[in-house]
Amino acid sequence: MSDSAVTGETVLIKNVLLYGEGEPTDVLLGDGVIAAIGADAGKDATPDAEVIDAAGQILLPGFVDLHTHLREPGREDTETINSGSAAAALGGYTAVFAMANTSPVADSVVVTDHVWRRGREVGLVDVHPVGAVTVGLEGKQLAEMATMASGAGRVRMFSDDGHCVYDPLIMRRALEYSSSLGVLIAQHAEEPRLTVGAIAHEGPTAARLGLAGWPRAAEESIVARDALLARDAGARVHICHASTAGTVELMKWARGQGISITAEVTPHHLLLDDSRLETYDAVNKVNPPLREASDVAALRAGLAEGTIDCVATDHAPHAEQDKCCEFAAARPGMLGLETALSIVVQTMVRTGLLDWRGVARVMSERPAEIVGLDDQGRPLEVGEPANLVLIDPDAEWTVHGPDLASVAHNTPYESMTLPARVTTTILRGRITASDGQARVRVRNGRG
Ligand SMILES: NC(=O)N[C@@H](CC(=O)O)C(=O)O
Ligand SMILES: [Zn+2]
Ligand SMILES: [Zn+2]
């Protein structure tokens, strides 16, 4: 139509509840942004607009994952940027941060720019590379953070995740350097001297099962130390995968002191505890380890009140031979991208701890703010980027590892029936996943 205000591809979402609130309305997407909201939003739709009947569904800003392992380069037998992007889109994510513990390590602009470019080529989700803090994740020498930050991939988060930046002097320098660069350091808080040989949470379960323990203090001592180092450096620090009640307490204390510290919690630490270890099934092996029910309760409460800022998946694909083996020999980590929303609904929404606006806060708005993405986690308003997720809150589905988009199948939720499902994910106005299928871009000359 020649008088149409919107050109190119348009998507019309009908009868949707914004943030799960109020009356159903229509939302028109065009030119990569939210073009109109309201009963007459469809009047500017192009004749070939894709119309989504979203009755009973909820619209939120697309999710942002600050902690994803995509395994490319190096372990493409477990995940690739292609397969991991599909998993992310199916999980409702419009941006993910790909951790640096690849092979080679993402400690140079060559690797970080490669990851960024591959992500753009795939086009299902914005893949932001995380740069290593230290060369080879070895904790000895700072990586060239400035070069990575000014590359095409514009690295804005640095982490040695998988390893702790344990040397306090190196961490102090990294924080000072990061604050002058305006980037974020994300710490895998694990004092390595306290976790030598550790494979499970140190507590009664591990003692009974004969598994060497990973004490809470290994995490908490680093959280406390880094809060003080961030304070003195005038820097920001982000705590990866908070797992203990003590970490929640320390976060509260540090915030009270005015320290710039943020933290994430994983879906698995919100749902699972160390009683899962009884079977010795290594699918439950993860760093930090599944803790006790009291920690799970404290993490949920901390997330609800904002002491823990956000949910991050720590999506960690592993090959069958690295998981289906004796517990001590297995690699730690579990899949998370496609199940994250459902676990958050089960643990936080069904329990009354968060409403849907709260889900938007912990899965989209806060992570985008923490890392400084200005095109994600935005309000559902006209003119804002159309990075969105549609959710059927009443759906139920049963998890089967082989049905997930990831190359590896190590989900701890195998055969569990979970609430709520992502029905559609939209990146800059383009549908990247719908009804369980990732949609690769069709190059028809229009974008
Ligand atoms: N979480 C894990 O248990 N494993 C992660 C590394 C990490 O997040 O520490 C991995 O890369 O597999
Ligand atoms: Zn980690
Ligand atoms: Zn990780």
Automatic annotation (TrEMBL):
<feature type="binding site">
    <location>
        <begin position="69"/>
        <end position="71"/>
    </location>
    <ligand>
        <name>substrate</name>
    </ligand>
</feature>
<keyword id="KW-0479">Metal-binding</keyword>
<dbReference type="GO" id="GO:0044205">
    <property type="term" value="P:'de novo' UMP biosynthetic process"/>
</dbReference>
<feature type="domain" description="Dihydroorotase catalytic">
    <location>
        <begin position="56"/>
        <end position="244"/>
    </location>
</feature>
<protein>
    <recommendedName>
        <fullName>Dihydroorotase</fullName>
        <ecNumber>3.5.2.3</ecNumber>
    </recommendedName>
</protein>
<comment type="similarity">
    <text>Belongs to the metallo-dependent hydrolases superfamily. DHOase family. Class I DHOase subfamily.</text>
</comment>
<dbReference type="InterPro" id="IPR011059">
    <property type="entry name" value="Metal-dep_hydrolase_composite"/>
</dbReference>
<feature type="binding site">
    <location>
        <position position="67"/>
    </location>
    <ligand>
        <name>Zn(2+) 1</name>
    </ligand>
</feature>
<keyword id="KW-0378">Hydrolase</keyword>
<dbReference type="Pfam" id="PF12890">
    <property type="entry name" value="DHOase"/>
</dbReference>
<feature type="binding site">
    <location>
        <position position="287"/>
    </location>
    <ligand>
        <name>substrate</name>
    </ligand>
</feature>
<dbReference type="InterPro" id="IPR002195">
    <property type="entry name" value="Dihydroorotase_CS"/>
</dbReference>
<feature type="binding site">
    <location>
        <position position="318"/>
    </location>
    <ligand>
        <name>substrate</name>
    </ligand>
</feature>
<dbReference type="GO" id="GO:0005737">
    <property type="term" value="C:cytoplasm"/>
</dbReference>
<dbReference type="GO" id="GO:0008270">
    <property type="term" value="F:zinc ion binding"/>
</dbReference>
<comment type="function">
    <text>Catalyzes the reversible cyclization of carbamoyl aspartate to dihydroorotate.</text>
</comment>
<feature type="binding site">
    <location>
        <position position="161"/>
    </location>
    <ligand>
        <name>Zn(2+) 1</name>
    </ligand>
</feature>
<feature type="binding site">
    <location>
        <begin position="332"/>
        <end position="333"/>
    </location>
    <ligand>
        <name>substrate</name>
    </ligand>
</feature>
<dbReference type="InterPro" id="IPR050138">
    <property type="entry name" value="DHOase/Allantoinase_Hydrolase"/>
</dbReference>
<dbReference type="GO" id="GO:0004151">
    <property type="term" value="F:dihydroorotase activity"/>
</dbReference>
<feature type="binding site">
    <location>
        <position position="101"/>
    </location>
    <ligand>
        <name>substrate</name>
    </ligand>
</feature>
<dbReference type="GO" id="GO:0006145">
    <property type="term" value="P:purine nucleobase catabolic process"/>
</dbReference>
<feature type="active site">
    <location>
        <position position="314"/>
    </location>
</feature>
<dbReference type="InterPro" id="IPR004722">
    <property type="entry name" value="DHOase"/>
</dbReference>
<feature type="binding site">
    <location>
        <position position="69"/>
    </location>
    <ligand>
        <name>Zn(2+) 1</name>
    </ligand>
</feature>
<feature type="binding site">
    <location>
        <position position="188"/>
    </location>
    <ligand>
        <name>Zn(2+) 2</name>
    </ligand>
</feature>
<comment type="pathway">
    <text>Pyrimidine metabolism; UMP biosynthesis via de novo pathway; (S)-dihydroorotate from bicarbonate: step 3/3.</text>
</comment>
<keyword id="KW-0665">Pyrimidine biosynthesis</keyword>
<feature type="binding site">
    <location>
        <position position="314"/>
    </location>
    <ligand>
        <name>Zn(2+) 1</name>
    </ligand>
</feature>
<keyword id="KW-0862">Zinc</keyword>
<dbReference type="InterPro" id="IPR032466">
    <property type="entry name" value="Metal_Hydrolase"/>
</dbReference>
<dbReference type="InterPro" id="IPR024403">
    <property type="entry name" value="DHOase_cat"/>
</dbReference>
<feature type="binding site">
    <location>
        <position position="241"/>
    </location>
    <ligand>
        <name>Zn(2+) 2</name>
    </ligand>
</feature>
<dbReference type="GO" id="GO:0004038">
    <property type="term" value="F:allantoinase activity"/>
</dbReference>
<feature type="binding site">
    <location>
        <position position="161"/>
    </location>
    <ligand>
        <name>Zn(2+) 2</name>
    </ligand>
</feature>
